[in-house]
Amino acid sequence: xxxxxxxxxxxxxxxxxxxxxxxxxxxxxxxxxxxxxxxxxxxxxxxxxxxxxxxxxxxxxxxxxxxxxxxxxxxxxxxxxxxxxxxxxxxxxxxxxxxxxxxxxxxxxxxxxxxxxxxxxxxxxxxxxxxxxxxxxxxxxxxxxxxxxxxxxxxxxxxxxxxx
Length: 164
Known about the structure:
The protein is α+β, with helices and mostly antiparallel strands. The protein has a single domain, classed as Aminopeptidase (3-Layer(aba) Sandwich), CATH 3.40.630. The protein has 4 helices and 8 strands. Strand 7 and strand 8 form a beta hairpin. The radius of gyration is 15 Å and the shape is globular.
């Protein structure tokens, strides 16, 4: 469990699939996603199963982001090990919660956990150049543009934070 003033973050469980599908099935939320929006809750359930396997293997994964106010699942945020061994931070929030700073709050907490608790030395975020909201979040949590890359066939800017 990871807590911030407004959020609780915990590992996903398969029962989260319907609530998470409302987020990951939204084309606006998933506009800058490699795989696009999820087509149904079964796809989301399989994604959650992958997150659970990642959690079991590495001790961390993308996690459910819950609002402390109403205990609703409002997004996902966490860390994932990429194919090349780097650790990436990711965040997605439900569209009706955009603009309230939840992604920044969640991502800042995960960045801190990655460096202080997990002992990581660097964390990356792969962000498409047109994804200005995600770039703002990355910059707010102290990440810096490291340069262009191709991520799953898509041109991105790699943002990096290093342990201080």
